[in-house]
Automatic annotation (TrEMBL):
A Pfam family this chain is assigned to: DUF484
UniProt name for this protein: DUF484 domain-containing protein
InterPro entries, per database record: DUF484, GAF-like_dom_sf
């Protein structure tokens, strides 16, 4: 049978802490489990450190809650804007009105500075730039979110402050009719892996409306 060691003595704990004076600093949350108060002598320095640890933990929790609330409010705003835009799509009687609606409504989204419906059959610098991206960034997918290099950005939008982009093809996968283009000054606003639930629903509705207007 194996011989198990008995519980540590007070002297062993004391010796260990003497040999490792920074042990509690390296393991601050251990302080939360210690009773450091003395009714006659008041709170020693360790108790003050415990209070500081609790205060920092509370501040971190408050920060996390504030971030969650802000994120929820932003999602609600995005949902309302996309829902209103989808409703108004069916009031547009031509592609020009549709393009104006998308530009006006969706640039109200947080950190979205530009939104355009680009007709791929147009003879314009922007249409040529988007067509080039269709054969590169959109080659294996109907959507792309992320940054673009200088050559790819050329002719895409006039605003040189735009740092991240999102593009979604509309129509047949092999021969799309148009691309919905978003651009943001924020470098990480559009990034690979970002969710696209709301915009996917809009793209589906937009494709149907374009078919009716064709």
């Amino acid at each position: 049978m194996s011989h198990s060691e008995g519980p540590l003595t007070h002297q062993q704990v004391q010796d260990f802490l003497h040999q490792h004076p920074d042990f509690l600093l390296a393991h601050p949350y251990l302080l939360l489990e210690l009773n450091l108060y003395n009714d006659t002598q008041g709170a020693p320095n360790l108790a003050l450190l415990q209070q500081r640890t609790l205060r920092e933990q509370n501040q971190q929790l408050q920060k996390q809650i504030a971030q969650m609330v802000a994120h929820a409010q932003e999602n609600e705003q995005i949902y309302r804007l996309f829902s209103e835009c989808q409703r108004r799509l069916w009031q547009c009687q031509d592609v020009s009105a549709l393009t104006e609606l998308l530009s006006q409504e969706l640039t109200q989204l947080p950190n979205v500075n530009h939104c355009q419906l680009v007709n791929l059959s147009d003879d314009s610098e922007q249409a040529r730039a988007v067509n080039a991206l269709r054969h590169s960034r959109l080659k294996d997918s109907n959507g792309y979110q992320g940054r673009l290099n200088r050559a790819e950005r050329a002719g895409l939008v006039e605003d040189e402050q735009c740092q991240s982009f999102a593009l979604y093809t509309l129509g047949d996968k092999d021969n799309p009719q148009a691309v919905l283009l978003f651009a943001s000054h924020c470098a990480d606003h559009f990034a690979p892996g970002n969710g696209s639930l709301f915009v996917s629903e809009l793209v589906s509705s937009l494709q149907l409306r374009l078919q009716h207007l064709a």
